[in-house]
Amino acid sequence: MSQGFVVWLTGLSGAGKSTLAQRLRQELLAAGRNVEILDGDEVRKNLSAGLGFSKEDRDTNVRRLGYVAGLIARSGGVAIVAAISPYRAVRDEVRGSIPRFVEVYVRCSVDELSRRDVKGLYAKALAGEIPQFTGVSDPYEEPLHPHVTVDSERQTVEQSLASVLHALERLGLVSLGVRERLPRGDELEALRAEAAHLPQLEVAAGAWADAYMLGAGALSPLNGFMDARDYAAVLDSGRLPGGHAFTIPVVLRVDEAEARRVRSAINGTTRIALRHQGEPVAVVDVAEFFETDPPREARGVYGTDDPAHPGVRRLHGEGRHAIAGSVIALAQPSSGFPEHDLTPLEVRARMADLGWRTMVGFQTRNPVHRAHEYLQKVALEVVDGLLLHPLVGETKSDDIPADVRMACYREMLEQYFPEERTLLATNPAWMRYAGPKEAVFHAIVRRNYGCTHFIVGRDHAGVGTYYDTYAAHRIFDEYSVSELGIEILRMEHAFYCRECDGMASTRTCPHPADSRANLSGTRVRELLAEGKPLPPEFSRPEVARLLASANGAHVR
To answer: I need a surface site. Which of 4, 152, 193, 406 has the fewest CB within 10 A?
Structure first.
């Protein structure tokens, strides 16, 4: 039986609690949950008819709501409470008594509530005609640490709903799958127009890539840049607060001056627009500002604080402050191959059209060579299809550029793989070089793109000598297949063996190392820079020719 929980919507009268509760109920019913709404007005009529509006009576009403909601949750149901519940102490008391309790603050100003109040209750209260009216003649104590804050004055119901649903998923209370926030058509044009009038933040390509992947659902269950709780949990445990596997912080980093400027600029709004080279690329519903801990993050993610490590160097070169909030993506980074720039839902649709029930993902930031081809074909013996999913975001300056790699991938698939069993799509992420932690991160991304299996080499996402042999394999001992949602194929190092006269791995080849054609990425770049051909045992001739022709323009 699924675990029950309580969603407690608190806020002033007319803020939109009941409307949000109804939409949330619809979504949770569609997800197969049993849901009951405890509306404050209805409960007062049926459960608390004898109570007045003194503080003591209001607290008693909240305790009764909490008791009933707790019973529903204890039996495996979901209780959605929509009640003003104005006093913080009794809300916190109820929150502490229910194990799985999610507090949602539905915020709206009295001015806006007065404007939209068709019954004129706020006008009467402001005129002194209604005593003990919360927010006017009686206090409302805002939550200090709600799980979610939505602003019904500035957000649509759907935007508020998305924030609540993603919080429930991040906390491990529901599993809703991949959810896009990629507006199209008139909605996109309206958001771009809105973005022009919002506080602006110029971001680099990496932050743009993160924002797009958040909006596309590629980083589900995240729907936005992490807050302080998410950040700390990922560094402490390799999981989000609700227990979902997640190993790398996804944060919108700014320096102290930018943090102050943005905090000041959003006075009166909750949204900012992200721009890249002057163009709007995303809208962020700001939820929190916090300070990161780069030294701790370097050790926790990269396993080193050596500034020579490219990930550590990048981390220390960015701001210590972070802006948290859900993301709506307005633009997609292009790889230069738009026909391959597929969203997670588009990849899943292609998978369904091809009739695949299983699909293995393969991560690469290098041109595909014979060892890669061997691993992919081994996997194709047990799954229906291959998603060749190259990373096309930012990489090290000495890595082969994405346009050259993409040309190599296309050539390899056209010449050496059955067309009906392969799919080439780009991964817009940037490379962290975080070794084992990034191996898990890559697996999560491929799960969201629809993969049922994922190939992990023993030095997956490694760089230099920072990670022990097989570290990328061992980390998956910490995560079950059921919690990852994807099966990991831990592959050995592959090579061409002259004695075997074919491709093999350390598990299948008995011959000594000097019988093996084994070139590192560094050695490949050296050969290309020297104008020397790549051995046919290492690279297919079509790929070698493409690399050689691009050498003058790209290899340094």
So the answer is: 193
pLDDT in tens, 176-202: 778 889 999 999 999 999 999 999 999
Stretch 520-528: mean pLDDT = 71
Backbone phi and psi for residue 481, each to the nearest 5 degrees, phi listed first = -60, -40
Residue in 84, 130, 90, 87 with CA at minimum distance from that of residue 107: 84
What does the pLDDT look like over 6-34, one tens digit per residue? 999 999 999 999 999 999 999 899 888 99
Q: Is 394 helix (H, G, I), strand (E, B) or coil?
A: coil
Within 8 A by CB and 6+ apart from 188, the residues are 330
Is-catalytic flag, 18?
no
Which runs of consecutive H residues, i.e. helices, occur in 354-470? 370-380, 402-416, 436-448
Q: Is 238 left (phi over 0), alpha (psi -120 to 50) or beta?
A: left
Nearest to 250 by CA among 208, 281, 283, 187: 208
Torsion of CA 179, 184, 187, 192, to 10 degrees: 100
Residue entry with tokens 């992919």? 376
Provide the residue type at 337 as one letter. F
Domains in the chain, start-ordered, CATH in brackets?
5-176 (3.40.50.300), 200-329 (3.10.400.10), 338-554 (3.40.50.620)
Residues 527/533, Cβ–Cβ less than 8 Å: yes
Q: Kindly name the residue from 13, 18, 48, 85 that is annotated as catalytic.
A: 85
